[in-house]
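Lab notebook, bench 4. The sequencing result for the construct came back, and we need a structural model before the next group meeting so we can plan mutations. Quick request posted to the team channel:

Model the 3D structure of this chain.
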Amino acid sequence: MMISVSSISAFLNNTPIVAFMIPYVKEWSQKTGRPASKFLIPLSYATILGGMITVIGTSTNLVLNGLIQEYGLPLLHYSDFLYLGLTVTVMGWAYFYFIGYNLLPSNENKLDALRENVKEYIIETEVFEGSRLAGKTVKEAGLRNLQDLFLVEIIRDEDVISPVSPEEVLEPNDLLFFSGNTAAIYNLIKDDNGLRIPKQDSLEIDGHFHFVEGVIPAHSELIGKRLKDSDFRKKFKASVIAVHRNGKQVPGKVGEMSLAGGDFLLLLASENQENRSHEKDLYFVSTPQKISTPKPKWLPWFGLLCFVCLILGITDVLPLFNISIGILMALVVVGILNFTEIRRELDLSLLLVLVCSLAIGVALEKSGTASLIANLIVSSAQKLGAVGVVAALFMVTIFLTSLITNAAAVSIVFPVAMAIAEQMNLPYTPFFVAIAFAASGDFMTPIGYQTNLMVYGPGGYTFKDFFRVGVMLTILYSAICIAFISYFYNLI
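Done. Here's the predicted structure in token form:
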């Protein structure tokens, strides 16, 4: 898995690779009886390491090269990433094969636990013959905004209605399923409102519920919103049964919960999840996507041609920017992409972070703060020579990227790296390569890299899990990077 994913990640954006692969990893884990938590962190780390093989493997490298170009300095070339990227990637494979796998937790599948203990999450009621609710809509029956409860599904004969619209008309013998505070349903029933507990418990019958899992990505518009204010059911055709955070279920009223990045949601959803227009706000991670064979015979050859052009751009044979724009326009012309999809994939939140980070970087340079920080790093590590200074800069960047995004970290540290090279009268390239690899070296926390946050919930991980498996990997990664840069760029 790691070899395949790392290879793909060298040419494609990390985030969609992980989003696509999580369901397959979980499905394979379930079939083989192995916990998915043993494979999801390696999945994320494989994309991070593979992304460092090429300049286009991660947005960090592109941002850095853009900054270098703005200052009219020599750009980083494919060789500045290829050899070191391959070295640390192979090291990552070996680390997980021999050491890291044993440090990963064996967490149970939350979806399996939900199915086994469905009564702890969902309460079943029945609209009996002669009930005063029969013929009324859900809204008219007063079942729309209940205290501590959500109406998540209606089963009518063989039909499953989920999510439930406020305008849905109730009929006799409808089975109504609520999630939330289990004690609240008895208060609802004892008021003689037209519901009762059915004599035959339908919760034991298979096939009534379509449970799925979802994860909130880092730049989701749902972050900070309460569920009841997010129009969740309408957007995603799903109802939230439970929210898990830091490996534990979040207590309290589901509707009152404020969502956070990395939250893992257990959902009761419509079986039709074809509407992908909101996928940037919520990734469904429990259902593998169906892959259809391309119909036109020329399509694989067209894909190969695009890939060859991309290689020419990466290796500086042709201008990378021009090649990328050309490929994008070609994909639009042949109908593989459209402008609506391109516009939807633009991450405005990331652009805002980058703009702010660039502004901070410019401020650091103009105010002289960058030179001050550079002088501090140089004076504290100069006894060890250029290698010590590179190591100190590397450590500062890794610390920063564990607190903020990697693209923001490289934007902020860039003027410091530039000032260090000028003060030491050395080439800029080794210092730029150092901050590029350090900014993507977040293996100890789930928050510094988008893909870590994506596997955080589905794997049932805690911060401690990332730290335990990531400390040794970070040490090995740092040592290899510093040693390679020092030797490759003749700093020794």
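Residues 78-103 form the longest helix (26 residues).
Will bring this to the meeting.
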